[in-house]
Amino acid sequence: MKKILLIPLLLFAVFSMAACGDGSEEPFTPEQSEQPENPGGGDGSDDNPDTPTPGGNGRYLVLYASRTSNTERVAQLIRTTLDCDILEVEPEVDYDSDYNAMLERAQEELAAIRRGNYPSVKTSMESFDGYDIVFVGYPIWYGSMATPMQAFLHSHASKLAGKRIALFATSGSSGISTSVDEARSLCPDATIIDRTLLLTSSGLSQMATRVTAWLEEIGASREEPETPGETSMKVKISVGDRTITATMEDNAAGRDFLSRLPLEVTLNDYNNTTEKIFYPDPALTTEGVARGCAPTPGDITIYAPWGNVAIFCKSWSHSNELIKIGRIDGNDIEALTVTGDITVKIERE
Ligand SMILES: Cc1cc2nc3c(=O)[nH]c(=O)nc-3n(C[C@H](O)[C@H](O)[C@H](O)COP(=O)(O)O)c2cc1C
After folding, report:
1. Are residue 207 and residue 62 in the same domain, yes or no?
2. Domain ends where: 217, 242, 267?
3. Which residue lies with its CA nearest to atom 10 of ligand 1?
4. Residues 213 and 244 in one domain
5. Which residue CA neighbors atom 27 of ligand 1 most closely?
6. What is the mean pLDDT of the chain?
7. Residue 280 placed within a domain
8. What is the pLDDT of residue 57?
9. Which of 52, 94, 189, 339 has the most crowded Cβ, counting Cβ within 10 A?
């Protein structure tokens, strides 16, 4: 076992030295002196699921595992930024405070997971209903997702089916891609949002800007939850002295569109008034939004490869690259079907 440990130990010595070498960085959490955090949420029984600490905004949940608080700090920042619920995923057996013992244990648990045996975790959730996005954060261990979070995702995979999961991780220097693959195979029926956040030891000092930028990229904000119902997704489009209304889809792209309003844009005529198009800058998020649409007049879409918004004036054949984000109410597209480019003002109704 000692030989097995030697290489990783040398690697982590390098991680730690790299982190300490930059005087402008916050210190990388020293392994040897850290004590495991005091468990707060779990009760050791799946019969008594845990309740996340609630925030004001019930649309998001932040789940995290963390032994030396790096991932916890990121998790708490996401929680504060979004004012949302948070829950720590804790191992049944407390983390070892001794670094070498922890390395050995992590290797054993990762090997056991490869054989299909997951370590026990204290934390359990009854349901993820009501959450738009479940944030899942963890440290990278030997290139993989830390074992407690793997175990939690494994035992909650069916409850997470259909949910959008946003992954974030911290590491000494390793990448996140292996753990993204692990998340996809642990939760095959969830949508793992492509854009992930990794903070290596040298990047922890930029945590605030990186977290803010990432949340914007994936369309998560602390805005008050939309009141479900048609009016909250309604927009009005003014063309000259005419006004028509549209209803946006209640998905990440539709909400991102709403967040850009009011907007005054020139709609370019495309393909002999088949579509009126414009290019939002930056492009609207399409993370986790279903693709594929056979547009009919009045459909508001995104053409994913180009990132343009296209309002259809004529029907067109099905494309897997079209994403429907809304529709002009009552097929009232006459004001748009003039030849040539037109300037419109789009506002929330
Ligand atoms: C068991 C173990 C394995 C680790 N493996 C890696 C690794 O493969 N690559 C890496 O860059 N960092 C590795 N690290 C460092 C952690 O990923 C890093 O310190 C992380 O920020 C710890 O997060 P935490 O404070 O939330 O526990 C490892 C740490 C431990 C304890």
Report:
1. yes
2. 217
3. 172
4. no
5. 67
6. 85
7. yes
8. 67
9. 52
User: Does 165 lie in the same domain as 126?
Assistant: yes
Same domain for 208 and 244, yes or no, is no
Quote the pLDDT of residue 289.
86
Q: Tell whether ligand 1 has an atom less than 6 A from the beta carbon of residue 107.
A: no
- The answer to whether residue 125 is domain-embedded is yes
The ranges of the chain with pLDDT < 70 are 1-47, 56-58, 224-231
Rg (CA), the chain: 24
For the CA of 69, the closest atom of ligand 1 is 25
| Tens of pLDDT, residues 201-224 | 999 999 999 999 999 999 898 775
Find the domain containing 128 and state its range: 27-217
Residue nearest to atom 4 of ligand 1 (CA): 141
**Are 151 and 276 found together in one domain?**
no
- CA of 38 relative to ligand 1 center, distance in Å: 19
Is the domain of 63 the same as that of 168? yes
* CA 120 to ligand 1 center in whole angstroms: 20
The CATH number of the domain holding residue 119 is 3.40.50.360
Write 26-34 long-range contacts (CB < 8 A, 24+): 26/204, 26/205, 28/70, 28/172, 28/201, 28/204, 29/68, 29/69, 29/70, 31/68, 31/99, 31/102, 32/99, 34/67, 34/68, 34/69, 34/97
Instruction: Give the closest residue (by CA) to ligand 1 atom 1.
Output: 103
The CA-atom distances, in angstroms, between 115 and each of 23, 111, 153 are: 43, 7, 16
Q: Closest Cα to residue 181, out of 135, 144, 142, 226? A: 144
Ligand 1 centroid vs 43 CA: distance in angstroms? Answer: 26
Residues 51 and 165 in one domain: yes
Residue 10 domain-assigned? no
Residue 48's pLDDT is what? 74
Regarding the beta carbon of 26 and ligand 1, being less than 6 Å apart is answered no
Ligand 1 centroid to Cα of residue 135, in Å, is 19
Q: Determine if ligand 1 sits within 6 Å of the CB of residue 143.
A: yes
Count of domains observed in the chain: 2
The confidence score (pLDDT) of residue 2 equals 35
Domain assignment of residue 185, yes or no = yes
